[in-house]
């Protein structure tokens, strides 16, 4: 019996070791870059890491997705080099970093548009204003706004069914702040999920439903969904690469950031990766379905990295809602 | 209608009821398997198993996730089985049957029911931070070991308990020591049932995601782990990540990865069942 036990365990160990020796044949410069944070930014970091590997195969870049808040927690404990964030760092998180003696460099890397969509079968909604969205989603709407004719009198008297982000997601934070004016202010009687694919499934089969989620999820499911243009004061605008990029789709486009530990940046592998990130984020963001900044803006971002400008431009929790990319970068570059 | 007839109807009714109960489980499993296999089977090829993770669904593979899982599960086995079997044997063969023993017994049973995420939090603080193992394979394996220990202990106890006392008495009567009796008589006789417990433990460890996420398993790991202190990812986490991506290609990938995971569990269980059957045939008492 003992023999069988030994055989089993050694066999298992051997197989795992055998596989393990496959990687890392060359002994060129090596190193590890650790990234964690927002699951929205995750695909960008993954793509950058994947392509970076082709130019620097011996630098191992790992990416996790603990969420923006979870990422900052690890960042302030010195556990990671780069934190992915779908919102700016908060003052509490800055305090935690200061206490641990961590300085950070804040770099915007792309924009994400939030799409408001209904089912293909829905014929009556042609556009919505921000005020109407607020009436639909604000906390006071819970239990009182139940049929579409309450939103606009020309809409039919059909029951409203809503699908939206779960409370733990950065999308929820952003949408509630942009539409209802306060982070986390939302009605609670809607179908919530952190998984946007669940929302896509839900709303596509629901004639009187409405949902919001990342633009990439609309683009991948165009055959099932109808995109609603949003009127932020200057007429209805559809979200697209162009309108999110030039800031006309407001207020539902949000910037995404990476935060780099400036002490980590002294390591060669981190510096090389960060440089590669700012040079390639635009191309890769587009690949994934996000909206890149424009070329000049990436220049400013690269400048900021080269000069190692530390600190955030969003002091005192200043909101990113309604901020155009150009404005954002003017602040970023200190002009 | 006489009594015999009534009883016969009751008898048949229960039989049908039991049959329905069985088919509910099988039906759900069948639907699930059909759904996954119809979506994912065509995606499985050698490249899928040997490729690194990628942003392109067609190029993405599960190499590092699969290796990470093998590492984690193997280490978990190596850590938890000796401890679990040792504890089980002690409680059954050496431990006094008093109030304290009862207390321990109840606690072990309770531990088996603690939500796995709680083990994750414990593992993060104890192994990840206090022992500064970080989000390494070792930290994850130690955490999963805690998780499966109660199962291993309970299974070992039951197995040892089922060995007839006459065997022990005969052994001791022939002048064997306690240890000789345990190692040559009791453990070999109960080996089959212990293995059943181990099957359950391994199957649970393979599918666990929540505690690993808490301990800090990553999603994108482009290298195969080389030592227990390396960072890692595992298949369930890769699947979880793929199902939440917008591109439909990733959903196909997820289905394919689920098939591989099922296969992995199936093979593990198969090995254990095979060993148990072979062993049970040899042991006669």
Automatic annotation (TrEMBL), chain A:
Q: Which residues form a coiled coil?
A: none
Check the record and name the InterPro entries matching this protein.
Answer: PBP_domain, Phos-bd, Phosphate_ABC_transporter
GO biological processes: phosphate ion transport
What region holds the PBP domain?
A: 28-279
Q: Does the keyword Aminoacyl-tRNA synthetase apply?
A: no
This protein's UniProt keywords:
Phosphate transport, Signal, Transport
Example GO molecular function: phosphate ion binding
Q: What does this protein do?
A: Involved in the system for phosphate transport across the cytoplasmic membrane.
Q: What's the protein name?
A: Phosphate-binding protein
Q: Which Gene3D superfamilies match?
A: Periplasmic binding protein-like II (3.40.190.10)
Segments traversing the membrane? none
The UniProt entry's sequence similarity note says: Belongs to the PstS family.
Matching PROSITE patterns, A to Z? PROKAR_LIPOPROTEIN (PS51257)
Native organism is: Solitalea longa
UniProtKB/TrEMBL annotation, chain B:
Q: What is the species listed in this Swiss-Prot or TrEMBL entry?
A: Solitalea longa
Q: Name one GO cellular component term.
A: plasma membrane
Q: Which residues form a coiled coil?
A: none
GO terms assigned for molecular function:
phosphate transmembrane transporter activity
Keyword Transmembrane on entry? yes
Q: Read off the InterPro entries from this record.
A: MetI-like, MetI-like_sf, Phosphate_PstA
Q: Name one GO biological process term.
A: phosphate ion transmembrane transport
User: Where does this polypeptide localize?
Assistant: Cell membrane
The highest taxon in the source lineage is Bacteria
**Which intervals hold domain ABC transmembrane type-1?**
66-272
The entry's family comment says: Belongs to the binding-protein-dependent transport system permease family. CysTW subfamily.
Segments crossing the lipid bilayer: 12-37, 62-91, 103-124, 136-160, 181-202, 250-275
Task: Look up and give the membrane topology term.
Answer: Multi-pass membrane protein
Can you name this protein?
Phosphate transport system permease protein PstA
Q: Respond yes or no to whether keyword Transmembrane helix is given for this record.
A: yes
Q: What is its main location?
A: membrane
Question: Which controlled-vocabulary keywords does the entry list?
Answer: Cell membrane, Membrane, Transmembrane, Transmembrane helix, Transport
One Pfam family hit: BPD_transp_1
